[in-house]
Request: fold
Amino acid sequence: MAALREAVAGPIATDFASRSALSHDASFVAGAADAVVRPRDAEDVVALVRWARKHRVPLTARGGGTSLDGESVPISGGIVVDFSGSTAIGPVNAAARTVQVGPGVVNHDLHRRLAESGLFFPPNPGSWRSCTIGGNVGTNASGPRSFRYGPTRRWVHDAEVVLGTGEVAHLGPVTAKRSVGPELLDLVVGSEGTLALVTGITLRLAPSPRRRCGVVVPVPESVPAGSLALAMASRVSLPISAIEYVDATVADALRRRPEARLPSDGALLLLELETEGTDVESEALAELDALLRQNGVAESATVAADADRMWTLRGEAGELLGRSTGPSVREDVAVPLDRVDALLARLRNLADSESVELHVYGHIGQGNLHPTFVVDPAGERGRRVRSRTWDAARSLGGTVAAEHGVGSVKRDEVAAELGEAGVRVLRGWKALCDPDGILNPGKLLPPNAPATP
Ligand SMILES: Cc1cc2nc3c(=O)[nH]c(=O)nc-3n(C[C@H](O)[C@H](O)[C@H](O)COP(=O)(O)OP(=O)(O)OC[C@H]3O[C@@H](n4cnc5c(N)ncnc54)[C@H](O)[C@@H]3O)c2cc1C
Reply:
């Protein structure tokens, strides 16, 4: 440790409070860090990786620690590499529509900083007030606006990384485009800190719409939420950037917030419209209302005062629910949009057969639901409910990890998702990028995977 202190300029903490604060994330997974290092720059990270290789010490990268499947938990001990202090935001390059950021920049802070530029970074996870861009890259995060704009992967132009070998690499192009083989950048997006530590990121930005309008749509019990979302998504003339769902209980939990001002009872769809003026917005709202009538919704849509606030409120759904229900299995499955109603039906059957309470919310426009079963996630029934939820999604052609990642909880599922050949490629990358297996061991890669292909 003395050699490490000499090599690294940033602070190193070994006291109990610092270690325990960073030994868990937002999941039920527990770990135990031996130390926390807050690197000052890429040079610090290089020195740290070299030291860790020599002493075979695990390194777990961490941003905001809001992961939901143990992605940022040091389950094998070792050092937590805390990037939350790397908060530099460079000047916006308006011509290239890019901005350089440190990995510790909080997603919502970036959103605010970009407000004047006329550009924005589209992925807005529910955790946007506490998750970081480094973490968003680590898990390939999405948010409500990913309905229109896609996940983080689409918005990363370049990344400076330190591989598990201690080498520094720039994985993206400097130019607007490049045609030199596959983009290596895809190695790190979604790799959960298992292949490299990200020390700098150049993000692509989208032009901000002139107006953003949050819209609340009541969903009567007689109307299947998935079919309604599908009808909205299929209406390409509507400038919809987000379609979110909260069932009646989750909506009630949100309604209890004084700032919520959500109308009516029952389940809701929360939408966002992006337009270039009030006339277009009024036309879009009229078209939306007509669509609602055609689909059996008698009540009109209402306009929310502020779309950003609506997304912050919606992002708190899991937490607000958790306060009244206690520990629960909170999943992250996705299916093609035309199978969402079938998924909802299977989830309800599952909950009934296991005699557990079920609440559902999520990014329904992306076919992505977060079914929340009120049962101890670490217990036997919790594990069975989780596994049956994954089976339900898979049997409908879906995925078990739409946006939260794999972490330590879903490693057994990776082979079924990627296939044997896919896992072999992943193992090959791991062997090349992190030959000693020091980067976030026990995450993402299926267990017992041989180190080399
Ligand atoms: C209330 C709540 C709502 C949420 N809503 C959403 C949502 O709408 N959409 C969504 O996608 N997710 C959501 N999440 C999950 C989570 O917020 C996201 O996965 C987010 O991207 C994690 O960011 P973080 O900064 O907290 O990362 P962390 O949890 O700190 O880390 C995430 C992963 O990235 C790796 N990592 C972090 N920094 C680096 C780095 N510099 N270099 C290499 N690897 C790194 C970590 O090792 C880890 O594997 C939600 C979570 C909560 C608690």
